[in-house]
Amino acid sequence: KEMEAIHKRMPVILHPNDEAIWLDPSITDAGILYDFMRPYPNDMLLLNEVSQEINSVKVDSARLMTRLRKD
Description:
Blueprint (H helix, E strand, L loop, with lengths): L18 H5 L6 H5 L37
C-alpha cells in the first residue's frame, strides 16, 4: 500500500532468506519464483524522499541516498 503512492508497479522485495532461491539458475519452475511476488509488509518498509538526481545515470554518488529534509 505504501509503495502504491510512489509507483503503480510493485517491485519484488526479497526477504534475505529467499535471495538464494530467487537467484538459483537451476530453478525452472516459475511457480516457485511466483510465490515470492507478494506485497512486502508495510510495517517493514522505510520510505525516504531522495533527490531527483537519482534518475540520472550521470550522477553516481552516495549522497543520492541521503534523505531530503521536509521543512
